[in-house]
Amino acid sequence: MDTWLLIGLGNPGPSYAKNRHNVGAMVIDELVRRGGTSLSRHKARAQVAEFRLGVLPGGAPGPKVVGAVPSSYMNESGGPVSGLLQYFSVPPERLVVVHDELDIPFDDVRLKRGGGEGGHNGLRSISKSIGTKDYLRVRVGIGRPPGRMEAADFVLRDFTGTERKVLPLLLDTAADAAEAVVLEGLTAAQNRFHA
Q: Residues with catalytic annotation?
């Protein structure tokens, strides 16, 4: 059965753990929890867990998935992602990257394949390292910074108290969307989550 690689972007270490920029890593944590396993260190500079994703119609276990969070900083995500694709023999068309997205309102999830990186250093690093932009993305909306705050400062701040109340639901929705991309295909997943 064909393996999928699901990558959650973020920065390593406890000081970044609850930042907006780490929402991709938070979604992978949720998927790994659902898979009944936990992340552990991998030589490709990442935290990795292997599990089956969901259940297929008829009750058979879903496809094999490698859930991973690079242990590098965001702007160096490409090396670990490239290493994991090679190690697990996954082609780029079965790569799903979950990341924060400034151009989408907080609490919204959008799905796409390919396209630009929108100034996202994690995506830019991945596209450069694997030699293509043609991979699947689960874009988790974090909204625009308030007032004149720089985007770079905004993404490295923790979610506000109000946002934290909604965050578990957002992570749940983004994890559902990532599952749907793998199990149902991009178009069906878009129809469901973009409604």
A: 21
- Which residues, 6+ apart, have CB-to-CB distance to 86 below 8 Å? none
Domain parsing of the chain, residue ranges: 4-193
* Domain 4-193 listed as CATH 3.30.460.10: no
Report yes or no on whether pTM surpasses 0.85: yes
**Sign of the Cα pseudo-torsion (28, 33, 37, 39, in order):** positive
**Averaged pLDDT for residues 146-159:** 95
Per-residue pLDDT of 108-134, as tens digits, reads: 999 999 999 988 999 999 999 999 999
